[in-house]
Amino acid sequence: MDIPLCYKCHTEKAKYKTRLQLVCEKCFITNIEHTFRCTIKNCIFPKNGEPLLICVSGGANSSCLLHLVDTCNNPLKTTKMMKFLPTILYIDDGSFYNISTNQTEAYLEEIQTKYSMPIIRKTLEELAPDLYSRLPSNPQPRADMIYLEIHNQIVNIAKQNGFSKVVTGESASRISAQVLSGICKGSGVSVERYANSCIELDGIKIGRPMRELLDKEVCIYLHLQKLSVLTKLPISVNPYPTPTIDILVQHFLQNLQSKFPSTVHTLLRTASKLVPRPLEGTCSICKGPKDEPLCPLENFVNKDETLCYSCHHLINP
Amino acid sequence: MIQVFVDFSGGLEDLFGRQKELQLNIEEMSLRQLVFHLKDKHLQMKPELFVTGDGLRPGIIVLVNDTDWELIGKDLYQVQGQDRISFISTLHGG
């Protein structure tokens, strides 16, 4: 089969098809790194000498984030070096995903050798000692509570260590799945926060510089750069063998994206246009806006007034 | 018979007994047939994460000698000797 030439350089044969474009390996890597550099400047604009906290979980997205930060910041890898001061934050939640300590240690040793950045390492058990006892057995609220606890702790650690800017590794595919699954779980009032390129919590700016990259692009980039990841399979607790809402929505979007390649970006762009409702009060769990009852019947439900609708159902599944 | 190398990553290795790489001696076949061969002979758990009724589950990237299978005919591609076929799952954590 004749393979066409790359759409960009018109010299090398195309090797990958992303977003309906056929691109060679070199142009693919250049595109990814250029897109990342533009997005990190637009969302968080790290200045020269400014400390920046890079949140790494060991998964594919954050491992890719770490490598891309290094390519922006390393004089050996780029002539247009950005001069912020990155520090890695690794919150070890391996015990919730059955990841052995050896795997975690091997991963951390590798990233320390490769990137020469300082690492702040904490375990989720030391940050939230009572979390395990509070976790419900149902896998969906369990995964949600772990996710929310980690993000709250990220803000606390940033404040304690003097960081005003943090970046996390959510990709376009991940954000669009979060938007849809958030609506399914009753947190529609917070959806515009998921879709924003940068949000502010307690004075800390949290940017998402990977938000323009699809999961396919992230995975191919990881493969080409031969980066290792910690594989965390989705939480599945017997007797609930069925997947969570998040997994079902991800599968649904992957299926749709394979047939209609603009799905993820259309969803992302539409969600970015949402305007937040002016609401008073903040939920004490997710730190998002606290929505008001839409129906008078909700007033009869025994509801914690400090929680939004979604978090109320999180702790009362 | 031809010899091919199959890689798994992104969590797929867990479905194949934590093997990241397989070296196979197989008859000449298409990629679609190879997928079902892997499912029948090597897959150890959760087949629904690897195949659907029609073929490979959406969300799994296939690279043949580091080239996207979408450029070489997808599952109709005839596997050749010494090919390296990489299966990468995009269902991953962040």
TrEMBL record, chain A:
GO terms for biological process: protein urmylation; tRNA wobble position uridine thiolation. Its main location: cytoplasm. GO terms for molecular function: nucleotidyltransferase activity; sulfurtransferase activity; tRNA binding. One of its GO terms (cellular component) is cytosol. Transmembrane segments: none annotated. It is found in: Cytoplasm. The keyword Ion transport does not apply. Pfam families: CTU2. Pathway: tRNA modification; 5-methoxycarbonylmethyl-2-thiouridine-tRNA biosynthesis. HAMAP family: CTU2. Plays a central role in 2-thiolation of mcm(5)S(2)U at tRNA wobble positions of tRNA(Lys), tRNA(Glu) and tRNA(Gln). May act by forming a heterodimer with NCS6/CTU1 that ligates sulfur from thiocarboxylated URM1 onto the uridine of tRNAs at wobble position. This is Cytoplasmic tRNA 2-thiolation protein 2. It comes from Stentor coeruleus. The lineage of its organism: Eukaryota, Sar, Alveolata, Ciliophora, Postciliodesmatophora.
UniProtKB/TrEMBL annotation, chain B:
There is a cross-link at G94 (Glycyl lysine isopeptide (Gly-Lys) (interchain with K-? in acceptor proteins)). Its main location: cytoplasm. One of its GO terms (cellular component) is cytosol. Pathway: tRNA modification; 5-methoxycarbonylmethyl-2-thiouridine-tRNA biosynthesis. C-terminal thiocarboxylation occurs in 2 steps, it is first acyl-adenylated (-COAMP) via the hesA/moeB/thiF part of the MOCS3/UBA4 homolog, then thiocarboxylated (-COSH) via the rhodanese domain of the MOCS3/UBA4 homolog. The modification 1-thioglycine is found at G94. Keywords: Cytoplasm, Isopeptide bond, tRNA processing, Ubl conjugation pathway. It is found in: Cytoplasm. GO terms for biological process: protein urmylation; tRNA thio-modification; tRNA wobble uridine modification. InterPro entries: Beta-grasp_dom_sf (IPR012675), Mopterin_synth/thiamin_S_b (IPR016155), Urm1 (IPR015221). SUPFAM superfamilies: MoaD/ThiS (SSF54285). Acts as a sulfur carrier required for 2-thiolation of mcm(5)S(2)U at tRNA wobble positions of cytosolic tRNA(Lys), tRNA(Glu) and tRNA(Gln). Serves as sulfur donor in tRNA 2-thiolation reaction by being thiocarboxylated (-COSH) at its C-terminus by the MOCS3/UBA4 homolog. The sulfur is then transferred to tRNA to form 2-thiolation of mcm(5)S(2)U. Also acts as a ubiquitin-like protein (UBL) that is covalently conjugated via an isopeptide bond to lysine residues of target proteins. Belongs to the URM1 family. HAMAP family: Urm1. This is Ubiquitin-related modifier 1 homolog. The lineage of its organism: Eukaryota, Sar, Alveolata, Ciliophora, Postciliodesmatophora.
